[in-house]
Every structure is written in C-alpha cells, then in structure tokens.
Amino acid sequence: MEKENLEFTHFNEAGRGRMVDVTEKHTTERVAIAKGSIAMKKETLQKIIDGQMKKGDVLGVAQIAGIMGVKHTADLIPMCHNIFISGSDIAFEIDQDRSKILIEATVKNTGQTGVEMEALMAVSIAALTIYDMCKAVDREMTIEKIYLAKKSGGKSGVFINPKESQK
C-alpha cells in the first residue's frame, strides 16, 4: 500500500496560497460520490412528498441546483481547478422514519485532478435549495453530515469512507 502524501500542497515557498500544478499528473477516469442529508419536521417532509410546497417541485429544483453547483465549484472554492465534468447526477431518498431526505451526488470526469469538491458541492447546494424552498414552513431544518463517501481514479486510487462500511 502506497504511503499517503500528508503535505499541504496549496502553499508556495513563501507560505501563500497557490493552485496546485497538475501538469505532470496522468489523465485518468475519476469518480466521486458525496452524501449528506437534511432533517425536517414530519409535516414538512409530507408536504414535499405530496407536492404541496408553494415554491414548486422541491426535489426537482434541488436536483438542478446541485448540478449547477457542480459546474460552479471552481468559482467558489479558491484553489479548486476549473475542470471538465463528463457526468453528474443526484439521487434523493426519503427517510420518513427519521424525517430526512438523504442526498447522494455522483460526479465523473476524465482528467488530471479529481471531482471530490464538485460532488461535495452538489450535495451542499441541493440541501441548501431544499432549505430555501421549505423555510417558510420549517426554519428548524438541519443540514447534516455532508461527506465524501467514495472516490476513484488518480494516483491515490480508490478511497471508501469508513462511514460507508458501518451501514
């Protein structure tokens, strides 16, 4: 097993921020999956399920917003590379028992740097959009546990978050 590089690479010799040079990295297929959830009142979740939110189709809008977040990641994360995205999808799972919407984003590309930040952005923006569309009826919603679940590609290969094996 290769030893992981634990050095901070986003600093130049003067200790100031820089964008990492990926010129010498090999182009590989890269995939990242991020997950998170948003908890809410049972009544709020039921309104989403029944299509009763005044602002419209909550999950449909959150899906598009999450994908737009993927496309704008480099605009918001200062040292993030502006990369070509070859695919992006978001899935929602309604958990009525815990009154949550589970969010999973998958982002793919073929390139010299990974798509982890883009997947995390997709989940974040989808959750924030759900909050925005439902806040008039439930300001107590909580965005929870956004994390990288899995990534593949590049020099470091496959990473599976230990949280995934605990399920």
From TrEMBL:
CDD domains: MoaC_PE. InterPro entries: MoaC, MoaC_bact/euk, MoaC_sf, MoCo_biosynth_MoaA/MoaC, Mopterin_CF_biosynth-C_dom. It catalyses: (8S)-3',8-cyclo-7,8-dihydroguanosine 5'-triphosphate = cyclic pyranopterin phosphate + diphosphate. Residues 19-154 form the Molybdopterin cofactor biosynthesis C (MoaC) domain. Keywords: Lyase, Molybdenum cofactor biosynthesis. The active site is at residue 132. PANTHER family: CYCLIC PYRANOPTERIN MONOPHOSPHATE SYNTHASE (PTHR22960:SF29), MOLYBDOPTERIN COFACTOR SYNTHESIS PROTEIN A (PTHR22960). This is Cyclic pyranopterin monophosphate synthase.
